[in-house]
Amino acid sequence: MRKSRLKLKPCGKITAIVILLSFLMPFRVSGEPLTEPQGILTENSMRYYSDSEIDLLIDEISKAANEAIEQAAGEAARAAFMASLEREAAAYREAHQWRLEAQMARNTGRKNALLAGAICFVGGLVLGVSIQNLLP
């Protein structure tokens, strides 16, 4: 604990110096100039835009278009993934249904085999006993 306090002392001093210097140094804040709404232009009066304004407008439109394209691509990928997931779930349900039907058929086959064996055994006993009684 003492080591950590010794390590934090220089950090505290540096932080205090930076805060004090930030109060002493004037920082200029640059921003966009305030825009004023322009009135409705008539056919005779037309506003001409400078090259920098056109470039700025093109950049903003391009940026917005790229963001829209990325968002649309993300939504399309999400929709494709969901469709794939739904197909996989349907295939899993179908496979599970086929497994259950196969297991039921196996169980039915076992029951039928046991029933056939029991009928054959009882038939054999009846036949054997009846033949035994018929013989002198």
Give the gist of this structure.
The protein has 136 residues and is mostly helical. The chain has helices spanning 2-24, 51-134.
Rg over CA atoms: 44 Å
Low-pLDDT runs of 5+ residues are: none
Largest sheet: none
Count, helices: 2
Strand content: under 5%
> Structural class, please?
mainly alpha
Using the alpha-carbon principal axes, give the shape. elongated
The SSE string, one letter per element, is: HH
Helix percent band: over 70%
Mean pLDDT: 81
CA-CA gap between termini:
110 Å
Secondary structure: number of strands: 0
Summary tags:
single chain, 136 residues, mainly alpha
Describe the 3D structure.
The chain has 136 residues and is an all-alpha fold. It has 2 helices and no strands. The longest helix has 84 residues, at 51-134. It starts with a helix and ends with a helix.
Write the SSE topology.
Layout: H1 2-24, H2 51-134
